[in-house]
Design brief:
Elements: E1 6-10, E2 12-16, E3 19-23, H1 26-34, E4 38-42, H2 48-54, E5 57-60, H3 86-102, E6 106-109, H4 111-119, E7 124-125, E8 131-134, E9 137-140, E10 148-149, E11 152-153, E12 155-156, E13 161-167, H5 172-177, E14 180-185, E15 190-191, E16 198-204, E17 209-214, E18 219-222, H6 238-249
Parallel strand pairs: 1-4, 1-5, 5-6, 6-18
Antiparallel strand pairs: 2-3, 7-15, 8-9, 8-12, 10-11, 13-14, 13-16, 16-17, 17-18
């Protein structure tokens, strides 16, 4: 490819103080542009086929939780579907199916990884179990709070902050990050059983899947948000550079 790749990035259809709006965090577009791509917002279900024709690749980004029905689980109470959005699910699963059919590269970030996994037959951990690190081992934490062991926080949660991800040798991620990398964490759900053709390529120290790649297709999903800084984590463009390279390679 002798031009900058055009990358479609999913947006949310929401209602706020200004009325009905399409929303996409500026960080996503900036990260694609800085990595050498041209970002375009993808927001309307009615023109999914046009996005596929115009864009060379797709990034599905964070938003509400995926509805449990999408990965074959049931719900018992209204609380089980709080934070889900049927229109958002319809759009993300629809545009993903179209890009997969076209054989174009797809990157899923946070919720985007969940969408990919569910679409390919995987399942989700709807509530990541909180762990506590004691004497070199992880165990379930029932204290529902913070404590300290040998001067460091012992409660291991994925709700906010940063952590270490261990990367699978020989993976695409390993070519860019090596054996380990620092990642941020803003999630309460995670991929459980991976969908058809997907292989875990990074895990947190408590075993939570932080990234996967498809065995033969240009598909990758990551649990963290590399474009977003937080305490202990500086925004990192490496994932976006990796994706732009993947688009240019065509695989």
């Amino acid at each position: 490819m002798d031009r900058k790749p055009i990358v479609a990035i999913t947006a949310e259809d929401i209602t706020d103080a200004f009325g009905d709006v399409y929303y996409m965090a500026k960080e996503y577009g900036d990260a694609v542009r800085e990595a050498g791509g041209i970002p375009i917002g993808a927001c309307s279900y009615d023109v999914i086929d046009d996005y596929v024709k115009q864009a060379d690749a797709l990034i599905i980004v964070g938003a509400q939780n995926v509805h449990p029905f999408r990965y074959g689980q049931t719900v018992a109470t209204f609380a089980d579907v709080m934070g889900t959005s049927a229109p958002k699910d319809d759009f993300d699963f629809g545009i993903l199916a179209a890009f997969l059919k076209a054989g174009k590269p797809v990157l899923g970030i946070n919720r985007g990884a969940h969408v990919i996994n569910a679409a390919l037959g995987g399942t989700m951990l709807r509530a990541i179990p909180q762990k506590i690190y004691v004497e070199g081992k992880f165990q379930d934490d029932n204290a529902n709070g913070y404590s300290e062991v040998e001067g460091s926080y012992s409660v291991y949660t994925h709700g906010y902050g940063y952590q270490i991800a261990n990367i699978e040798e020989g993976s695409r991620l390993a070519k860019y990050f090596g054996k380990q990398t620092v990642i941020n964490t803003f999630h309460t759900q995670a991929c459980d059983k991976l969908g058809e053709g997907l292989k875990a390529t990074a895990k947190a120290e408590d075993g939570i899947i932080e990234a996967f790649e498809h065995e033969s297709k240009p598909i990758i999903g990551i649990q963290w948000n590399p474009e977003h800084p937080c305490e202990g984590y500086a925004a990192d463009s490496t994932v976006y550079k990796m994706f732009i390279d993947m688009i240019k390679e065509g695989k």
